Amino acid sequence: MQVSSLLTLAPARRAALPFAAAFAVALAGCAVTPTRGPSTSNATPELSTQTMHAYHGRFSVRYVDQNGQTRNAYGNFDWQQQGDTVTLQLLNPFGQTLAIITSSPASATLEVPNKQPVTADNVTELMRRTLGFSLPIEGLRYWLESSPAPTSHAKTITDPQQSSRLKEIDQEGWTIEYLAYADAPATGVKRLDLTRAAPPLAIKLVLDR
């Protein structure tokens, strides 16, 4: 499957995706300063104090596994964020739960159907231990709200056609491209792509909210 086929439902024979492939998308705010070019900034402090965010949508991911093979996966996701705690449920295209990841500043837990939960001090350690790579769940807490994370410097580029919206964020080795925003009266990001060069990883997200 090509990553670009995000919006195409898979036939039944593709439903049995390997768990590691689907889990690869277990992913790791809106105030922006209008500019006409690249800038460096951090997220506004107000964003981190917001207590609840929920996102529902579809994902497509391309990554290189521990054997050096390129893998593709896709499905649906449900993201629930309360304060500093994120609960991410991954589902296959038929709605069956593949994994549930809970991440907080104190610990992280990974649950797989019919298996005992696995815990670690943080979500990065947990994913490295179980999959051999990690994903930017902490960054996504802010990137999903069209804002750089407050933990490090970032380069931002605004949309030349609408300066109140971000077109791109470059932060912590990731490039986040905002391809679509919801039409009024809805608000927020509709589609975004995330890419990382090393180790290579490409994620496409469509938010149905």
Automatic annotation (TrEMBL):
<keyword id="KW-0449">Lipoprotein</keyword>
<keyword id="KW-0143">Chaperone</keyword>
<dbReference type="GO" id="GO:0015031">
    <property type="term" value="P:protein transport"/>
</dbReference>
<keyword id="KW-0732">Signal</keyword>
<keyword id="KW-0472">Membrane</keyword>
<keyword id="KW-0564">Palmitate</keyword>
<keyword id="KW-0653">Protein transport</keyword>
<dbReference type="GO" id="GO:0009279">
    <property type="term" value="C:cell outer membrane"/>
</dbReference>
<dbReference type="InterPro" id="IPR029046">
    <property type="entry name" value="LolA/LolB/LppX"/>
</dbReference>
<keyword id="KW-0998">Cell outer membrane</keyword>
<feature type="signal peptide">
    <location>
        <begin position="1"/>
        <end position="28"/>
    </location>
</feature>
<comment type="similarity">
    <text>Belongs to the LolB family.</text>
</comment>
<protein>
    <recommendedName>
        <fullName>Outer-membrane lipoprotein LolB</fullName>
    </recommendedName>
</protein>
<dbReference type="InterPro" id="IPR004565">
    <property type="entry name" value="OM_lipoprot_LolB"/>
</dbReference>
<comment type="subunit">
    <text>Monomer.</text>
</comment>
<keyword id="KW-0813">Transport</keyword>
<dbReference type="Pfam" id="PF03550">
    <property type="entry name" value="LolB"/>
</dbReference>
